[in-house]
UniProtKB/TrEMBL annotation:
Signal peptide: none annotated. Residues 3-135 form the RsbT co-antagonist protein RsbRD N-terminal domain. Gene3D superfamilies: PucR C-terminal helix-turn-helix domain (1.10.10.2840). InterPro entries: CdaR-like_regulators, PucR_C-HTH_dom, PucR_C-HTH_sf, RsbRD_N_dom. PANTHER family: CARBOHYDRATE DIACID REGULATOR, DNA-BINDING TRANSCRIPTIONAL ACTIVATOR ADER. Residues 315-372 form the PucR C-terminal helix-turn-helix domain. This is Transcriptional regulator. It comes from Nocardia camponoti.
Length: 383
C-alpha cells in the first residue's frame, strides 16, 4: 500500500514528480509506511510516540534538503484521501455511524501528523536560516574589515563579486516607537525585519548587509542594480520601513570595500548634518561638499562665514531649511510655519549680514559650503 500511495503521489501531486528517484523510493516510501503504521496504531490504541519521533526526524531532514513543505502537506492529504476511499468503498448505509466515528478519527490523525511535521520542519528551518545568517554576517564583516573571504564565501554558498556598491543607511525611528502604549523595541525590530525582507526580495541573496534598527551597511554587487535601480531600491526600503531612509553610496572593488564603507558613512554623516530630505546620495554628486569636511584653513574660513548669524537663530534655521528643501520657498515656509514673504525677508537679511546673497548662485554656493564646514569646525556646534 505504501508503494501504491507513493505512485499516486508522483502521478497526482505535481511537486512530488520533481523529487529525485532515490528520494521517492527511499525516504518518501518509508515515511508513507510510517504514517500508515501510525494510523493503524492510533486505531488499535497502541503507543505511537516512537513513530511520531520518526516523523519529526524525517521532517527535519526534508527542511535541510529544501523539500517544500507544501509538497509534504499535499502528499499527506492525498494519502488520507486514498485511505478514506479504501474504507468507504465497501461501506453501506448501515455503516453510517461507524463511518462517522472513523472520519473523526481520521481528522485527529491528520491533525496530529500535520502538526508534528510542521513543528519539526519549522524548527529545523529556523536553525538553517540562523546558521546562514550567521555565516553571511561573518562574510560581510570580513569584507568590511578587508580580510580574506574565500573560505567563508564557500561556506555561505555566495560568490563574492569583483566590485560592490557600498551603501551606508540611516533608518530613523518609526512614529510608533514614541507611542508609550507600545513596546518601542518591538516596533523597531519589526521595522528592521521589513527592511531586511524587502532587501532580500529586491536583491535575492546577492546583497550582503550588517543592519541594526538605526541603519548600517549594505554591499550590493555592482552589476545587480544600475544607478536608477539603486535609487529605486532606497525608495522601496523606505516604503517597507514606513520611514524615510537616507543613504549614501560609494562604488569600489572588493579590496577597497573598507575604505569605501568609511567614506560612505562619512558622506552620510555630512548629509545628516545638512538635514536634507530622505533618499540616496552619491559621492560624485557631493564630492565638493565632502572635501569641505576635511580639516584645514579652508574649512575654518568657510565655517566662519555664518558667524554673523549667531545672534539670529531664526535666520540660520531658515537658510538651512531652504537649502535642505532644494530652494523651494513654499516648502520652506510650510516647514517653518511662516509666510513665503517672511522667507524672502529672512533670505534678504542673510545676504545683508553675511555679504553673500542666497538668491544668487555664487552666494548660495558659499552659504551652502559654509553650512557644511560649520558643523565640522567645532564638534559642539550645530547647524
Amino acid at each position: 500500500m505504501s508503494r501504491q500511495m507513493v505512485g499516486h503521489f508522483v502521478a497526482n501531486v505535481a511537486p512530488c514528480g520533481t523529487l529525485p528517484g532515490d528520494a521517492i523510493s527511499g525516504d518518501v516510501t518509508t515515511i508513507t509506511r510510517i504514517c500508515l503504521e501510525f494510523a493503524v496504531g492510533m486505531l488499535d490504541g497502541r503507543d505511537i510516540s516512537t513513530k511520531l519521533q520518526r516523523l519529526q526526524d524525517a521532517a527535519s531532514a526534508w527542511a535541510r534538503e529544501g523539500v517544500p513543505i507544501d509538497t509534504i502537506h499535499h502528499s499527506i492529504a492525498e494519502g488520507f484521501k486514498m485511505g478514506l476511499d479504501l474504507v468507504v468503498s465497501a461501506a453501506s448505509g448501515k455503516d453510517f455511524d461507524d463511518l462517522l466515528s472513523g472520519v473523526r478519527m481520521v481528522m485527529e490523525m491528520l491533525d496530529t501528523i500535520t502538526a508534528q511535521i510542521s513543528l519539526a520542519y519549522v524548527r529545523e528551518l529556523r536553525g538553517v536560516i540562523s546558521e546562514h545568517h550567521t555565516a553571511v554576517h561573518t562574510l560581510t564583516s570580513a569584507l568590511l574589515g578587508g580580510h580574506s573571504t574565500s573560505t567563508m564565501a564557500r561556506e555561505c554558498g555566495i560568490t563574492v563579486a569583483e566590485q560592490y556598491a557600498v551603501l551606508a543607511l540611516s533608518i530613523p525611528p518609526h512614529r510608533e516607537e514614541a507611542n508609550p502604549a507600545l513596546d518601542a523595541k518591538v516596533v523597531a525590530r519589526r521595522k528592521l525585519r521589513r527592511v531586511q525582507a524587502e532587501l532580500a526580495k529586491r536583491c535575492t541573496e546577492t546583497a550582503l548587509s550588517l543592519l541594526s534598527v538605526d541603519g548600517g551597511t549594505v554591499l550590493i554587487p555592482i552589476d545587480t542594480l544600475d544607478r536608477a535601480g539603486l535609487t529605486t531600491l532606497v525608495e522601496q526600503l523606505s516604503q517597507a520601513a514606513q520611514v524615510g531612509i537616507t543613504a549614501a553610496v560609494v562604488e569600489a572593488p572588493t579590496t577597497g570595500i573598507p575604505d569605501a564603507a568609511d567614506q560612505a558613512h562619512e558622506l552620510l554623516d555630512m548629509v545628516g548634518r545638512l538635514e536634507v530630505t530622505a533618499g540616496l546620495y552619491r559621492f560624485d554628486e557631493l564630492a565638493l561638499e565632502y572635501q569641505l569636511t576635511r580639516p584645514g584653513p579652508g574649512r575654518e574660513f568657510l565655517g566662519s562665514l555664518l558667524d554673523p548669524l549667531d545672534q539670529y537663530p531664526e535666520l540660520l534655521e531658515t537658510l538651512q531649511r531652504h537649502i535642505a528643501n532644494n530652494l523651494n520657498r513654499q516648502r520652506t515656509a510650510r516647514v517653518l510655519h511662516v509666510h513665503t514673504n517672511t522667507v524672502d525677508y529672512r533670505l534678504k537679511r542673510i545676504g545683508q549680514l553675511t555679504g553673500f546673497d542666497p538668491t544668487q548662485p555664487s552666494g548660495l554656493w558659499y552659504l551652502r559650503s559654509a553650512l557644511v564646514a560649520r558643523t565640522y569646525r567645532n564638534p559642539t556646534t550645530s547647524v
